[in-house]
Write a structure and sequence with these properties.
0% strand
């Protein structure tokens, strides 16, 4: 008597499929970090020109709205620091969550990693003409990472009610 072959109702996933979400979040995080570091590898002149461009756009928008903003290049630069690292904090939070890291560990892994990445960012700037590394920027970047982490945790909490 012949044995009947058991029919599968599903296709067994490949290892890549099992880790697709983790790999995607990791790659997005690394790509964003490369974007941040590439901005740090610009000379002071290139960085200033970029900030001036953003400042002109803000001034045109505020003039069209008949609003005096008082925005300066310095404020643009510091806001960019915070915003870049807030996005990095959100991406890192999603990455560690995708890899199954417990919440209690997320709350120290993300900020510590963010602090180390911000420190590396400021060190990179030391090697480019006219740039300097500032500890105050590390703290600002760290605050951005913390804000990104807090935003993701709050969003996760609200969505899982």
């Amino acid at each position: 008597m012949k044995k009947k072959k058991k029919m599968r109702l599903y296709k067994e996933p490949s290892p890549l499929y099992l880790y697709r979400k983790e790999i995607i979040w990791t790659m997005l995080t690394l790509a964003w970090l490369l974007f941040i570091y590439s901005n740090s590898m610009k000379t002071a002149g290139q960085s200033s020109a970029q900030s001036q461009l953003v400042l002109r756009v803000v001034e045109r928008i505020s003039a069209a709205a008949h609003v005096e903003t008082g925005v300066t290049e310095h404020l643009i630069r510091k806001t960019a620091h915070f915003a870049e690292y807030m996005v990095l904090g959100m991406l890192m939070t999603q990455t560690v969550r995708a890899w199954g890291v417990f919440l209690s560990h997320q709350l120290w892994i993300v900020p510590l990693s963010g602090f180390l990445m911000a420190s590396a960012d400021e060190i990179i700037q030391l090697f480019f003409d006219g740039r300097s590394g500032q500890f105050t920027d590390v703290l600002l970047d760290f605050a951005g990472v913390a804000a990104g982490l807090a935003f993701c945790q709050l969003l996760h909490h609200v969505m899982n009610r």
